[in-house]
């Protein structure tokens, strides 16, 4: 890749990932932590985000150093066919996220329009917001990320301040006792999963970085600050008012018509990343396809899915993401940073040993969910999976299906 493509610096990544974090999904997820109480909820948010964002940054470093997209980097551990499997799973995740973001925004916009004008048209809002995401993707990497996104994030920063004022204008959220019904480990897990869900995407953008330092610090600080802030807003709103729905907060602040613009802007800047990376992941399987065009198609599919998506299954959707990608990146990060195998080997079609350890990790994830471990499931599962992969690597490194010979190497 030519150095002319390495144009994104610290500020671009800071704004990009702060904008990605300022989303309705983050606020709603923070609201799920309300039964824990405010102070314990914040502790879970910070612990989960320190771990999750740290892992996210490591995934981004691979993209910058090797100049390859996130799902292509999985070929380092799993081979070409293995990366196809994870590309399909990632496309499903990203189309799912596109649907979640669009329907959540459409519901908020619909509530606002009902109050302002008596207009109840959820389907119209769903299609309209999906259409705006299509326009954002059409702006392209240079237009969408380096210009429009930077302006949008300054507006979103102002929005977060307004929402914070609404939620914390009195001390109700700070003093309300825990309601119970959610363990600390479950709260940590819900905090880790959100940055983890960006792992299959981050290298799609850090591969264009000027240097490793700017991408790592910009991405890490931008996402950590934005996501923690959104979680805390959702947590406070759910405790104080029993409602983490952003439209309710914005109407309480008398934002009126401006609330519609806020909902749409926050959704478009985040959903753009989901849809675009769905195109990048699909292109890993079919490299001759144009990433942007595929992203446009994925947005259309996500918009159609949003028309039927059951938002009440949101928490299960998050756990499914964790089960797949926590062990996947435990293997890849171990291969890259500990074993120090850092290049894609074109001859390797599939690494059966890596896939076996990943499958064990998936099963282990659901066991830890049942155990309700104090640090959630992602943290122990990634540690155990990484250890298993490193310990067994001396044997399983030979379990590879390769081109030409089609026998174990």
From TrEMBL:
- What is the top-level taxon of the source organism? Bacteria
The keyword Chloroplast is assigned to this record: no
Pfam family example for this protein? Transp_cyt_pur
Localization of this protein: Membrane
**Primary localization class, coarse:** membrane
Task: State the membrane topology.
Answer: Multi-pass membrane protein
Please provide the record's keywords in A-Z order: Membrane, Transmembrane, Transmembrane helix
Enumerate the transmembrane spans: 12-32, 38-63, 84-106, 122-139, 151-168, 180-201, 221-242, 248-273, 294-311, 317-337, 349-367, 373-391
- Which family, according to UniProt? Belongs to the purine-cytosine permease (2.A.39) family.
Enumerate the NCBIfam families for this protein.
thia_cytX
Which PANTHER family does the record cross-reference, listed alphabetically?
CYTOSINE PERMEASE (PTHR30569:SF0), CYTOSINE TRANSPORTER CODB (PTHR30569)
Q: What is this protein called?
A: Cytosine permease
- Per the UniProt entry, what species is this protein from, by scientific name? Sporomusa silvacetica DSM 10669
């Amino acid at each position: 890749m030519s150095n002319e493509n390495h144009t994104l610096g610290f500020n671009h990544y800071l704004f990009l990932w702060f904008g990605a974090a300022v989303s309705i999904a983050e606020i709603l997820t923070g609201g799920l932590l309300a039964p824990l109480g405010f102070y314990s909820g914040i502790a879970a948010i910070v612990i989960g985000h320190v771990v999750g964002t740290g892992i996210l940054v490591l995934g981004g470093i691979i993209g910058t150093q090797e100049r390859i997209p996130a799902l292509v980097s999985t070929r380092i551990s799993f081979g070409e066919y293995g990366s196809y499997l994870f590309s399909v799973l990632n496309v499903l995740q990203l189309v799912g996220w596109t649907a979640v973001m669009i329907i959540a925004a459409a519901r908020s916009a619909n509530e606002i329009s009902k109050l302002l004008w008596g207009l109840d048209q959820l389907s119209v809002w769903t299609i309209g917001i999906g259409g705006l995401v299509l326009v954002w993707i059409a702006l392209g990497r240079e237009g969408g990320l380096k210009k429009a996104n930077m302006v949008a994030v300054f507006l979103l920063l102002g929005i977060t301040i307004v929402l914070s004022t609404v939620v914390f204008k009195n001390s109700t959220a700070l003093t309300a006792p825990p309601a119970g019904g959610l363990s600390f480990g479950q709260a940590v897990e819900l905090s880790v999963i959100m940055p983890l869900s960006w792992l299959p995407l981050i290298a799609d953008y850090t591969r264009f970085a000027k240097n490793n330092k700017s991408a790592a610090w910009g991405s890490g600080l931008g996402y950590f600050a934005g996501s923690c802030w959104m979680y805390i807003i959702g947590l406070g709103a759910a405790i104080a008012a029993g409602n983490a729905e952003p439209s309710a907060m914005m109407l309480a602040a008398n934002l009126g018509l401006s609330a519609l613009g806020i909902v749409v802007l926050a959704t478009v800047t985040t959903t753009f990343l989901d849809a675009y990376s769905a195109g990048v992941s699909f292109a890993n399987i079919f490299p001759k396809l144009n990433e942007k065009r595929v992203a446009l198609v994925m947005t259309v599919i996500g918009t159609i899915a949003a028309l039927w998506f059951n938002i009440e299954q949101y928490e299960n959707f998050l756990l499914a993401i964790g089960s797949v990608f926590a062990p996947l990146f435990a293997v890849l990060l171990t291969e890259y940073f500990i074993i120090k195998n850092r290049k894609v080997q074109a001859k390797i079609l599939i690494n059966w040993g890596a896939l076996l350890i990943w499958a064990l990790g998936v099963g282990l994830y659901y066991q830890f969910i049942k155990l309700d471990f104090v640090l959630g499931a992602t943290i122990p599962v990634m540690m155990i999976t990484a250890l298993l992969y490193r310990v067994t690597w001396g044997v399983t490194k030979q379990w590879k299906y390769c081109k030409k010979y089609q026998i174990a190497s």
